[in-house]
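Protein modeling request. Please complete all fields; requests missing the sequence field cannot be processed.
Requester role: graduate student
Desired output: 3D structure, token encoding
Chains: 1
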Amino acid sequence: MKKVFTALMTMCLMLFSVCCVYAAEIPYEETSSEITSETPLESQSESPSETLPEICRHSFGDWSAVDWPTYMKEGLEKRVCSLCGETQTRKIDKLTHLSYRLCPDGDADMDGKVTAADARYVLRLCLGFDDGLDSLQKKKADFDKKDGVTAADARYVLRVCVGLDPYAPSLRTGYTLAGYTKKGYALAKKDGITYVVSPYGYTLIANKTYGVPSSYAPGGLTSECYSAFNTLVKAAAKEGKNIYLSSGYRSYSTQASLYNRYCARDGRAAADTYSARPGHSEHQTGLAIDVNSITRSFANTKEGIWLASNAHKYGFIIRYPKNQESITGYSYEPWHIRYVGKDLAAAVYNSGLCLEEFFGITSVYS
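Delivered output (366 residues):
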């Protein structure tokens, strides 16, 4: 009996040893049913092939204008993500400076925009360096179309490329900014009178769009205009031409009387083609003169031919040229000259444009 008991105990001990060895070889497993942060995404999905969508961090390029029609209107800009194609749009406030998108010149390298690179080209050109620019590029570099490429052009271009008004960084005392023309020139107002601010100075504008107050009364031709006209008359006389003043300064009340008389005779619509309404006449500014015969046949006289070819040399322009009626608002007047100064007169004459076209302004009654 004792032997049997001993044999059973030995067998139990052997069996217990085998179980311990087997248990030691099996690794420990986590029994919790929770999915930890280290659990692979595949095990969290019902389908091992599905993956979560990535959130695009957006790689947007520069904003580009999509609706920027004029200087005084609001528009829109947009940009597109190069990764996912998402578009963002924002509103553009009314412009307060000349934009390179509408800048007529200054793009020396002709890449479609005015940048610091253009300012460098222009600066080097005005110092006598060439950089291999062709004739068209040099023409574009002459921003103000005055005296060739100079340091002034470099300044204008540099201001444009940093988003500033090239011509009027600060207005003269007493003037307020009244907007911009279609060609980017600043419009300034003082005492109810509108001026175009350009490299040629402050040019007073009186036409169908821009009027002058009834109280504006210089009392006669301005001293500068009167002096320039006398010089013109003497120059013409030396060449055997007799040019004389037929009508100069007119007050608001005088213009009102003339205009009302024409309306009674021909009707308002017809009168508007050849006579200014009171407050819109250049004669009230003291800067306009009617010479010799107030008829279109004057253009074919020796004085008329001489005036058309030489008035700009003395600071005058033929204010209402032929075939420009739809722009100036008035029929052809070869006898009507306007004093604007020698530099501007020469620029307008050489351009072949009327004053409205040259500055990018309108002449339409509101």
